[in-house]
Design a protein that fits this description.
The chain has 180 residues and is of the alpha+beta class. 22% of the residues lie in helices and 23% in strands. It has helices at 2-24, 52-63, 152-155, and strands spanning 32-37, 40-46, 72-76, 80-83, 112-115, 128-131, 144-150, 172-175. Strands 3-4-6-5-7-2-1-8 form an 8-stranded antiparallel beta sheet. It is globular and about 30 Å long.
């Protein structure tokens, strides 16, 4: 009986050690983003299985420093926070060409990241949004490319508005594999 208890305790301790080490380094650093906000770091798991071209675009722009200092220009309480426009107006994007839509069956739930676009399905470029709450009406209409796995409490503190007066900014966004 005592040996079973000791074995169980050892197994629990081993699981705890694995959790700690997993928290220190993401499982897939090449498909993990660190989004640093004023209140702390948000960890995002990218979904190349759903949207390989959109994931590649986000990583390219993050590696170029494109998102560093960009404001959250549209933040709607109970819905989402949108960013990725260097003009801060909701009308801008990167110099790269727009992307073809990669719609999937993945639902828009709290913490999901989707690509913003105009009315044209193939118009996503650099702007994206993070869901504050579920938004099933977006399913199959916008490209899902990632999800928050840690730090959603920091996203919840982004200043609201449409447009946002004195908006919060992305301090830094980087691919975990490149993190400094």
């Amino acid at each position: 009986m005592i040996s079973r208890i000791l074995t169980a305790v050892a197994a629990l301790m081993m699981m705890g050690a694995m959790t700690l080490s997993a928290g220190a380094q993401p499982a897939d650093p090449e498909n993990t983003l660190y989004l640093d906000l004023k209140d702390g770091r948000v960890v995002i798991r990218l979904r190349p299985d759903l949207a390989p071209n959109h994931v590649e675009r986000i990583k390219t722009l993050a590696r170029d420093g494109f998102y560093d200092g960009i404001v959250f220009h549209r933040v709607i309480d109970g819905f989402m926070a949108q960013t990725g426009d260097p003009t801060g107006t909701g009308m801008g994007g990167s110099d790269l060409p727009d992307l073809k839509a990669e719609f999937s069956e993945a639902p828009f739930r709290r913490g999901v990241l989707g690509m913003a676009r105009s009315r044209a399905p193939d118009s996503a470029n650099s702007q994206f949004f993070i869901m504050f709450a579920d938004g099933d009406w977006l399913n199959g209409q916008y490209t899902v490319f990632g999800e928050v796995v840690d730090g959603m409490e920091h996203v919840d503190k982004i200043k609201r508005g449409e447009p946002v007066e004195d908006p919060d900014k992305i301090i830094k966004m980087q691919v975990a594999a490149d993190a400094t």
